[in-house]
Amino acid sequence: MKRSLRELIGYSVRAKDGEEGKVNDFLFDEKSWIIRYVEVDLGNFFKANRVLVPYNFLGEPDWEEKTFKINLSVDNIKRSPNLSFDMPVSRIYERKLADYYGIKYPYWMVDSAAFAGNEVVFYPGVAFRAPRKVIKEEDIDTSLRSFNEIKGYGINATDDKFGHISDLIIDDTDWQILYFVVDTNNLFPWSKKVILPIEVIDKISFSDREARVDMTKEAIKDSPEYNPDDAVNAEFEEVLYDYHGKRK
């Protein structure tokens, strides 16, 4: 099923020993647009305790209760390597985290799911409907991006700049980001939210805080409207892909 990341922020998180926290953010790999980590706050009102949990340690979510189960104890999580959330997550930190959790084959090292035995592994970072070009900033040793970071990035269409990214839509079976939602709030009187497939993104500029989209302003404005109260189901996806002249 397709899920809105915006709606998942604030979900409860329950560790194996019962202690709870909440979801603060999601980090995705910009090369494949797959969620790799969930940022969890296990603190309280007086003191935050934010940690990263690899997404494949998440158990089956309880969508009715808006709760994620984590297949780790709170002690496991709290003893994980310290992380400064003022800086991007570096590959050095990812290696430390992988070593701590006994992850033998981190996602950036694997290109096949054919692993035998009971080792803990990440799913392979195979691109699926990934953007044609994604900017690489040489001064930042990371390919991870934050949902909270990219939310609010401006839209640079082929003929104008307008609106911003307001949400990302994932497939909850594999945590693949499939669509992004554009809020056209400065296109009065046509202001609305529209949904676009990830592959129309030509480039992401993290320094300029914008997404370059290979569509005109008019084409974006006329895209299928997104209503967060309506499911992004197969019928809606057919309409979306018909509009873009693609087959789903």
TrEMBL record:
<dbReference type="GO" id="GO:0030077">
    <property type="term" value="C:plasma membrane light-harvesting complex"/>
</dbReference>
<dbReference type="InterPro" id="IPR011033">
    <property type="entry name" value="PRC_barrel-like_sf"/>
</dbReference>
<dbReference type="Pfam" id="PF05239">
    <property type="entry name" value="PRC"/>
</dbReference>
<dbReference type="InterPro" id="IPR014747">
    <property type="entry name" value="Bac_photo_RC_H_C"/>
</dbReference>
<protein>
    <recommendedName>
        <fullName>PRC-barrel domain-containing protein</fullName>
    </recommendedName>
</protein>
<dbReference type="InterPro" id="IPR027275">
    <property type="entry name" value="PRC-brl_dom"/>
</dbReference>
<feature type="domain" description="PRC-barrel">
    <location>
        <begin position="4"/>
        <end position="60"/>
    </location>
</feature>
<dbReference type="GO" id="GO:0019684">
    <property type="term" value="P:photosynthesis, light reaction"/>
</dbReference>
<feature type="domain" description="PRC-barrel">
    <location>
        <begin position="152"/>
        <end position="218"/>
    </location>
</feature>
